[in-house]
Amino acid sequence: MTNTIVTGGRVLTFDPAFPEAEALVLSDGRVLAAGRTDEMTSLAGPGARRIDAEGGTVMPGLVDTHPHVMHFGTLAGGLVDLTDAVDHADIVERIRARAAITPPGEWIMCTPVGEPHYFIRRSEQDLLERRLPDRWTLDRATEVHPVMIQAWAPKMPNVVAFNSTGLRAVGLTAFIPDRVCDVDLEKNETGDLTGILRGPVTNYYTYDPFWGQILMKLPPPNLENAAAGTLAEMARFSAQGVTTVYEGHAMEPEHIALYRHLRASDALTLRVMATFDVESVIFYPFDPLTLDEFTERLRHFAGQALDLDDDMFRINGMTMSPGGPCFSGYFATYQPHLNPFGRQTRGVRFLSTEKEEAFVRFCAEHGIRANMCMGAFREHDEFLDIAERVARDHDFRDRNWVLQHAITITPAQVRRYADLGFQVTTSAGFAWGKGKMYGERMGEQVWRDLEPLKRLVDAGLDLGGGTDWGPKNPWEQIELAQTHRFAGCDHRNDGPDQVLTRTEALSMWTTGAAKVIGWSDVGSLAPGNQADVLIVDRDPLRCDIDDLADTQVLRTMLGGNTVYDSGDLSTPVDEATAVAR
């Protein structure tokens, strides 16, 4: 096979044995070597394919340890994209275009307006009209299709819009009260529904009984749209420089099956490590399993929870998520805090401590890698008490179990996780997107324990980064791990327990992330590793912190093949490789 040599830029290998080089040689989908240009030219041979980085930086592909690629891709698959809509006329035109190719009577579902999933920097309030269109405006697009502009979690309260046909399809008429449960139904001065609903009207992490009944009347994603949406989402990740992801949260059997289908079709453009979620609580309706049913599900997944033979799709472990996020009012705390509607709450435990102990004990007894997705003080304490008790009977401390989220966590809890041999994946974007909300609802004292990345690293916990709800830009997440700025206010949660160095922040997306997911040949350009290579337009290790989030990926290679090319490099892309532009 023809070798490839990459020259013309600084090479950051993230390999401690040889961290920096002038050139990189790839062979048969792997890294052959990195070193001086003359040495690498000789090693590559006279017939080598050459790539000129043209002053850019060459580095390993990024590893996103909490991306929700399939979930968010499936949510958007087949929907009319309104994220960048500018006004009502633009929205009407986009829906009208979809209506022209959609059989009458079928739903036309639309994305929210703005930047998912926090909708802080841009939302429906940034439309020219500063609001979503009402049903009469949407009726101009179509009267023979039910239409809905969705709201996506985690922002709550939120807002949706239906056209007139959509209102009839879900059974809403002017006879309904102005408020049902926590849902506000907007009416005009004559008492007619406008089609605008506000409140817990999101499509996940919502358990409002009234809204739940409406959700049940909406069309579920179909397999074709789910696959297309996932492929589109993978392309967006490739364009940001991500080459490996960890789908470790809310992965139901149908999600695993779709990934297997994409792998069998040779359609994956990212390496995927996944886990089975033993009982997902994200989507409505949530009908808790009995303890016997839960135990049987553990046994059913146990035989499928380890598959590490493939270089593109792997499974390792099972996940449990006992609680929910603060935006929805489900964060498990000791002191009461305010939910989205101004009522006091101490949060909700969706899965019982009996199930949690059954999960921990089962994984420990059977050598299964457990993932605990938790972010609240009370959740940590309840779990740690169980885990320490089980570890005395079945020591799992060398199994590299994973704590996901860790949004708030005290120094004592960090030490207990470290003693149990845990690794951690979290998102600096949690503090960015929710820090202001935490201060308002729970009190500013919570900020001292919010996303304490340095505290985790100093305790010896391996740490991986993820985009999760946003920002969906890994370079901005790397910046946020250092600045800890909040969206929507001027506060920076940049205390000594939070702020990472640039090297530590980059490790969360390279070597540290690879270690967390247990994929040993990604995350660095060490000899023998996968040839997952980026060429970016600046040096992310040395550029000014204010410029880091604007890093542009010029080319992304997966196993030596180009999966994204910006068109800004003069070296042509091999025609045999798949390219997304």
What does this protein structure show overall?
With 581 residues, the protein is an alpha/beta fold. The chain has 18 helices and 27 strands. The strands form 5 sheets. Strands 8, 15, 16, 17, 18, 21, 22, 23 and 24 form a 9-stranded mixed sheet that branches. A hairpin with a 2-residue loop joins strand 12 (179-180) and strand 13 (183-187). Helix 2 (69-76) crosses helix 7 and helix 9 packs parallel to helix 10 (353-366). The longest helix is centred in the middle third of the chain and has 17 residues, at 223-239. Residues 575-581 have low confidence and may be disordered. This is Amidohydrolase. GO terms for molecular function: hydrolase activity. It is an enzyme of class 3 (hydrolase).
